[in-house]
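Course assignment 3, question 2. Fill in each field.
Student: A.L.
Task: Predict the tertiary structure for the chain below.
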Amino acid sequence: MKCPTCHSIIEKDWLICPKCGIDLSIPRHEPILQEYLAPSTDIVKDTNQPFKQKVNSESKNLGTRKHSGCLCAFLSLAVVGNALSGLITWSMATSVSSSMQGIVMLAGLLNIGGVIFAIAIYKWKKWGVYGYFATLGITMLLNFGFGDVASVARGFIPMGLLWYLIRASWNQMD
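Answer field:
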């Protein structure tokens, strides 16, 4: 059997393509649903198939892409954790010395950036992944500058997790 999206060879009983991550349990021959989800595409009649959809680059895999449960859990924790960390960081900005307040405000902004980038990843945007990695990298550099090597090492954990979870659906992202 071939995957309807990436055309790689897959087993007949698989529910998800291991290469592109498409959900194989959803039928791909429902023209009304596809037209509703991707109105900018052209649906043309073919003699071999009831309906064949010509997809433009903006609507690729629209309606068929689905996040894994682990990625959803990771992104949910990233949104909640970064939002709380940003609020806590900003609340203690007044209790640090004036020379450190700028760094504390930057740390809070990086946390809010983490929220925005995690939401972008959930909405299938590649720039969200790049931004999330950038915020983690900047945070790790700040921690390294303060000599907090343990925090730098811990920073690799979410990077590795996100890379592992996102690689299956990378080709489906805009």
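Instructor remarks: Helices lie at 31-37, 69-91, 101-122, 126-145, 149-166. DSSP finds five helices and two strands in the chain.
Grade: pending
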